[in-house]
Amino acid sequence: MKKVKTIKVDIDKCNGCRACEMICSAFHATPKYSSNNPEKSKIRVLFDPIKDIYVPVYAGGYTEAECNGWDIYTIDGKEYDECAFCRASCPSRDLFTDPDSGLPLQCDMCLDDPPQDEPLCVKWCHADALTYEEREEEGEEAKKKPDEMEVGLQSLVKNHGAKKVMESLAKLKQEKD
Ligand code: SF4
Ligand code: SF4
User: Among all ligands shown, which has an atom nearest to the Cα of 43?
Assistant: First the structure.
């Protein structure tokens, strides 16, 4: 059996307050809670008050290629484009890409130091639009997911090549020493 951690999203309850974006970016700021910037949050809220659309989406994995799906979905009379529900950090949009480093952002379920017993976005959502869930599923224990640094390094290597990344790291180390 493997343990799967998820956040269930109820878009009917979301009111677009964006408290989830604020706490997520503050918790992951360096130093912790020193700043908050929605563009650095690992959960983003697509909102369009005129159309009464509020869609919280937490960041999934990084993907190298954009998809070719541009479908429109109509749910309860509201139109959403396909990207509205997508959790990927992908090359076709800025969402889930750190605006300073250009590295992909990925939700870590707030297991960053110190690990939280429940994701902070869930705790801070007073509209109860977010619910943390853990479930057991048949299958082998999931392979360890790459952590944020590994994902970032993979992205740098893809964009600049391993040699250039190694040279830059060596230069940084020299400057630090
Ligand atoms: S905190 Fe809850 S209600 Fe507010 S924007 Fe986030 S998901 Fe929506
Ligand atoms: S679980 Fe934590 S890291 Fe993931 S989106 Fe929510 S606040 Fe951000």
Answer: 2
φ and ψ at residue 21, rounded to 5 degrees? -65, -40
Same domain for 108 and 161: no
Best residue among 7, 24, 98 to mutate for probing ligand 2, ranked by most atoms within 8 Å of CB: 24
Check whether residue 15 and residue 85 sit in a common domain: yes
Task: Please give the tally of structural domains in the chain.
Answer: 2
- In sequence order, what are the residues at sequence separation of 6 or more whose Cβ sits closer than 8 angstroms to the Cβ of residue 127? 13, 14, 15, 17
Instruction: Evaluate: CB of 42 within 6 angstroms of ligand 2.
Output: yes
Which residues constitute the domain of residue 169?
146-177
Q: Cα of 95 to ligand 1 centre, how many Å?
A: 17
pLDDT digits (tens, 9 = 90+) for 50-88: 999 999 999 999 999 988 877 899 999 999 988 999 999
C-alpha 68: how far from chain center: 21
Task: Give the pocket of ligand 1 (CB within 6 Å).
Answer: 14-20, 45, 54, 56, 124-125, 127, 129-130
User: What predicted TM-score, i.e. pTM, was given to this entire model?
Assistant: 0.80
Which residue bears the tokens 């990927």? Answer: 88
